[in-house]
């Protein structure tokens, strides 16, 4: 009888030991999980308003396990912000993610279906709603692919043109461009050999005879057609 009571106590002690151990382990696991939940997202490289704008989307990741959050999860969220050019993500264990951003350069602006968009050096159209400052920049008209504009822009940069003097770009379906400068001079470029045409333009601009020039037409190969303002 005594032996049965002793076994009973032993089993009872063992039961309480396992029960208490389970509670302890459960609380330990919960505390561990809580410790590694994302609590802080630090964003650098953008303005305060841009940071708050981006945080609205990134905050949905908070309270998730930092180990479950992959870099691609963050990149997918940031993909909608077209003004961003470079993204660097670093996890700081236990509960912080640092994100360093760099913004693209604004090259020009255009209008798509009546909405204003900026053209980024990163090759993306940026809705003006994503930009918290107004840029004084040239306007591009016409239905063009952004790579067509970037190709022209790079040619102009390579020939060291002062881009601030260009106020408007006009694109035509035959892949040709007109440039309108701040002095109202219009430069008509051909669809091909744009680089050679810019060389000719730069040579012409050193001539004193072009003071009253309204249009420089280089559309036809080996021809220069100049129209004066009084014509």
How many structurally independent domains? 3
Structural class: alpha/beta
Q: So what's the overall shape?
A: elongated
* Low-confidence blocks of residues: none
Roughly what percent helix? Answer: 25-40%
Based on the coordinates given, report the CATH architecture of the largest domain. 3-Layer(aba) Sandwich
CATH superfamily of the largest domain, please? Cell division protein FtsQ/DivIB
Largest sheet, strands/sense/barrel: 9 strands, mixed
How many helices? The count is: 5
Radius of gyration: 32 Å
What's the overall average pLDDT, rounded?
A: 87
First-residue to last-residue Cα separation:
126 Å
Total E-strand runs: 12
Relative strand content: 25-35%
**CATH top-level class of the largest domain:** Alpha Beta
Strand sequence of the main sheet, in spatial order? 6-5-4-7-8-9-10-11-12
> How would you spell out the order of helices and strands?
HEHHEEEEEEHEEEHEE
**CATH topology of the largest domain, anyone?**
Rossmann fold
Q: Can you give a write-up of this model?
A:
The protein contains 5 helices and 12 strands. The protein has 3 domains: 1-35; 40-103, membrane protein fhac (Ubiquitin-like (UB roll)); 106-228, Rossmann fold. The longest helix has 34 residues, at 2-35. By secondary structure, it is of the alpha/beta class. It is elongated, with a radius of gyration of 32 Å. It is 33% helix and 29% strand. The model has no long low-confidence stretch (mean pLDDT 87).
């Amino acid at each position: 009888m005594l032996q049965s009571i002793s076994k009973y106590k032993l089993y009872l002690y063992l039961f309480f030991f396992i029960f208490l151990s389970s509670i302890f382990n459960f609380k330990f696991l919960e505390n561990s999980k809580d410790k590694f939940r994302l609590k802080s997202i630090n964003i650098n490289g953008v303005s305060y308003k841009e940071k708050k704008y981006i945080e609205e989307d990134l905050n949905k990741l908070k309270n998730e396990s930092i180990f479950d959050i992959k870099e691609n999860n963050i990149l997918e969220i940031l993909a909608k912000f077209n003004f961003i050019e470079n993204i660097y993500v670093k996890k700081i264990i236990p509960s912080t993610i640092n994100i360093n951003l760099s913004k693209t350069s604004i090259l020009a602006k255009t209008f798509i279906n009546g909405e204003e968009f900026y053209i980024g050096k990163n090759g993306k159209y940026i809705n003006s709603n994503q930009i918290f400052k107004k840029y004084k920049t040239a306007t591009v008209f016409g239905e063009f692919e952004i790579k067509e504009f970037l190709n022209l822009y790079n040619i102009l940069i390579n020939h060291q043109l002062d881009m601030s003097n260009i106020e408007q770009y006009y694109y035509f379906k035959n892949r040709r461009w007109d440039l309108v400068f701040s002095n109202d001079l219009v430069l008509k470029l051909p669809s091909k050999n744009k680089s050679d045409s810019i060389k000719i333009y730069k040579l012409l601009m050193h001539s004193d005879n072009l003071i009253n020039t309204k249009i420089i037409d280089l559309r036809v190969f080996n021809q220069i057609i100049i129209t004066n303002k009084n014509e």
